[in-house]
Structure prediction request, 131 residues.
Amino acid sequence: MKASPISEHEVPGRYYKDLLHLMVVGTNSLYVYWEISDRRRWLMSQHFECDFGVMPSVIRLYDVTHIHFNGHNAHAYWDTTMLPETTHSYLHQAKANRSYIVDVGTYTLEHEFIPLLRSNCVVTPKDSEEN
Prediction:
């Protein structure tokens, strides 16, 4: 059997498309990774008339347990500001046996949150102390 060169199996640094994925790490921890396409970056830059790299990068974690989430009816949410070049993060605001969704977005000058991408929904496991 002939060995394949390593370069054929390397994971690319970027996929050049929009993606946002949320995963459960444990009872109180989540992991989120994302990529914002060049097209979406360009659209945001044009709309806000500034370079995308100077816009604040924000992760908004929503608690959507037992609700049909419409973007505005979460039980609670938490914002975490990231460096613009960040593409992944661990989130430790989670609680056991709850459902979560994440948006990646930015703030306007008036501090209004503008979502760019929305993740899948995940459910954290029950706490071992629960019955």
About this structure: The first helix runs from residue 38 to 48. The longest strand covers residues 99-107. The chain has a mean pLDDT of 92. The helical segments are 38-48.
